[in-house]
Amino acid sequence: MKYKELQEKFGRIVSHLNEKSKRLWCANEAMSLGRGGITLVSAATGVSGTTITEGVKEIKGEKEVRQDITAGNEIGTNNGKIGLSVHRINMK
Fold first, then answer.
1. 22 FRET partner, CA 20 to 30 A, in 5, 29, 51, 77?
2. How far apart are CA 65 and CA 63, in angstroms?
3. Whole-model pTM?
4. SS3 letters for 20-84?
């Protein structure tokens, strides 16, 4: 598969992918290409080679699949405060 084909293929589906599925899709394509696949997929999609390598490890079972953070749950929200509250209940 050539660079242009990867761009077209990725372009058709990218708007339907979240970060996890994008990483795994790119990794799967890179694995199917063999040697040089990560570099080619990275160049064609703009997804970093490091991210694709992480996806390859996840597919191969060498790394636990990362749970991506979704909107509203970003690290660092709430001004760095821990979002826990304690309620005391008077039981008499």
1. 77
2. 6
3. 0.69
4. HHHHHHHHHHHHHHCCCHHHHHHHHHCCCHHHHHHHHHHHHCCCCCCCCCCCCCCCCCHHHCCCC
Residues 50 and 41: their CA atoms lie apart, in Å, by 12
Residues 61-64: contacts with CB under 8 Å, at least 24 apart: none
Q: How far is CA 76 from each of CA 13, 26, 57, 68, 86, rounded to the nearest angstrom?
A: 31, 28, 28, 15, 21
Pair of tokens at residue 36:
């040089």
